[in-house]
Amino acid sequence: MVFRLDRFLSECDPTLTRKTAKALLHDGAVTVNGKPARDAALKIDTDKDVVAVGGKTLVYRQFRYFTINKPAGVLSASRDNRAQTVVDLIDGIGDGYFPVGRLDRDTEGLLIITNDGALAHELLSPRKHVPKTYIAVCKGTLDENACERLQNGLNLGDFTTAPAKACILQRDLSENDPTTTIAITITEGKFHQVKRMVEAVGSEVLHLRRVRMGGLWLSQELASGAYIETDGETLKKELFQDGTNDEERRLRSYL
After folding, report:
1. Which of 45, 59, 138, 212 is paired with 144 by a 20 to 30 Å CA distance?
2. H-helix or E-strand spanning residue 99
3. 157-176 pLDDT, tens digit each
4. Is residue 230 helix, strand or coil?
5. Which tens digit of pLDDT belongs to each residue from 197-232?
6. Backbone angles phi, psi at 70, to 5 degrees
7. What is the rounded distance in angstroms from the CA atom of residue 240 to the CA atom of residue 102?
8. 104 counts as catalytic
9. In order of start, what are the domains of the chain with their CATH numbers?
């Protein structure tokens, strides 16, 4: 791809404003193919030219990919004038980035943020049936019959859910406030779907976290609100592979 030099600088480092980029050019801090460059309009071919700032070579990436452990209270949106969004959590990110799919405001867990529209379309396509696994802490005591109903599909009025996977991970039989923690895997992504499914079997979701998309599991080392940048090829390989290997152990590790 070919860019003006000032545009190339901002594409490689979104924290650079046009004013800052011009200052770097004026000070001779920018080199192109080893020679100082001061012309902001100089054409840069990303496949051929080597651009450095302060001796550090810049690498142009058309698409970038971040996995984030979304905290509760943050919107799954690109921008919002009144509330913090998941894109706001990523330092120095430019325009054009968005979350792939959404998690409810009070739902936590795995979310992908990128500027790659093709990947988003592929992941969200109903034809792909990409599984998404959630751990839900539910009010009261759920039994195997409830799990069986979740797995067989439920008529929620406006639609019937596709067959899901569900299993009980833990029960807290406290006398006053018993809870049941379940894992549920769905291949759809309707509004409030997991919460509505749990309500349909007579319970209520108290806490919800997504821990898997496709073959990609939420890293246990990723703190709430933290993120990591991921290589695109590696990310796609993980997303579109089977993530059920050692599934039960993985699920219980989040408890």
Report:
1. 212
2. strand 98-99
3. 999 999 999 999 999 988 78
4. strand
5. 999 999 999 999 999 999 999 999 999 999 999 999
6. -65, 130
7. 19
8. yes
9. 2-57 (3.10.290.10), 65-253 (3.30.2350.10)
